[in-house]
């Protein structure tokens, strides 16, 4: 990674998120809520550092920095960290931090390994406001899916323990559903509809069977199936949690596919 100011703030955020995870771990062992609140504050401070990195990068590039996988992963992790901070603060379930924070750190780690070059000039296809809508909404939606995945892991672990209050499991299941209910419309509007309109504006076609387009469609169909199974088939609890984990695994595979499958969404060719 280069040593530009935006990368330095990104690194600071990365370190702070690791500290937040450590606070949540200590809280789980000691049951002292002060450590849990320290984790919440650390998440908030890390999110602010990420915002600073984003705006510094914007200033250095001269345009909104949404044309690289590094920026995309950073936005995804930012959404997950803000969602986790709000979720823990409102529910007082500090144990959630020990399951969701590692996902945030993992996404940040992936982002840190990706090229961080700042492109001063975008290729013509990217000089569109649809880029802002498409990329930002897709990344934010996948951040919500990351939170859902962490909640699902938490649910499955809690379910295996003896003496767990069924009402507590129901509350976790509802939080999981709420996270997906936030991510799904963002993904639908951003990844699919805005993406199709941008594709038509840039390449003259709403759909070109690009690997990334196909991946996004599969993800959307999967989460549509999740909601159908929940509302029409009554899938809740364990089955819903397993589906949410599979869904986020598909998100990560689609994201990493950009590195290997190429196509019109290959960030190496976007400028």
TrEMBL record:
Domain Cytochrome c assembly protein: 72-262
Family: Belongs to the CcmC/CycZ/HelC family.
InterPro entries: Cyt_c_assembly (IPR002541), Cyt_c_biogenesis_CcmC (IPR003557), Cyt_c_biogenesis_CcsA (IPR017562), Cyt_c_biogenesis_CcsA/CcmC (IPR045062)
This protein's record includes keyword Thylakoid: yes
Residue ranges of the TM segments: 6-26, 38-58, 70-89, 96-115, 135-157, 178-200, 212-229, 241-261
Keywords noted in UniProt: Cytochrome c-type biogenesis, Membrane, Thylakoid, Transmembrane, Transmembrane helix
Organism: Eiseniibacteriota bacterium
Pfam families xref list: Cytochrom_C_asm
Record's protein name: Heme exporter protein C
Locations listed in the record: Membrane
Membrane topology (UniProt): Multi-pass membrane protein
């Amino acid at each position: 990674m280069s040593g530009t100011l935006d990368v330095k703030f990104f690194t600071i955020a990365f370190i702070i998120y690791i500290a937040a995870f450590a606070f949540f771990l200590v809280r789980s062992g000691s049951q002292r809520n002060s450590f849990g609140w320290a984790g919440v504050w650390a998440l908030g401070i890390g999110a602010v550092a990420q915002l600073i990195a984003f705006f510094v990068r914007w200033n250095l590039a001269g345009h909104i920095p949404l044309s690289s996988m590094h920026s995309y992963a950073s936005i995804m992790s930012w959404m997950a960290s803000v969602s986790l901070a709000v979720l823990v603060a409102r529910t007082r379930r500090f144990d959630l931090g020990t399951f969701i924070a590692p996902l945030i750190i993992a996404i940040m780690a992936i982002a840190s390994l990706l090229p961080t070059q700042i492109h001063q000039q975008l290729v013509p296809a990217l000089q569109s406001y649809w880029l802002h809508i498409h990329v930002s909404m897709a990344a934010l939606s996948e951040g919500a899916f990351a939170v859902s995945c962490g909640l699902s892991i938490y649910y499955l672990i809690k379910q295996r323990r003896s003496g767990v209050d069924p009402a507590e499991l129901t509350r976790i299941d509802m939080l999981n559903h709420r996270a997906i209910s936030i991510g799904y419309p963002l993904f639908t509007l951003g990844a699919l509809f805005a993406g199709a309109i941008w594709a038509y504006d840039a390449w003259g076609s709403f759909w070109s069977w690009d690997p990334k387009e196909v991946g996004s469609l599969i993800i959307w169909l999967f989460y549509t199936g999740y909601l159908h199974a929940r509302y029409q088939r009554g899938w809740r609890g364990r089955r819903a949690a397993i589906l949410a984990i599979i869904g986020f695994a598909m998100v990560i595979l689609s994201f990493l596919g950009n590195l290997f499958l190429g196509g019109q969404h290959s960030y190496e060719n976007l400028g």
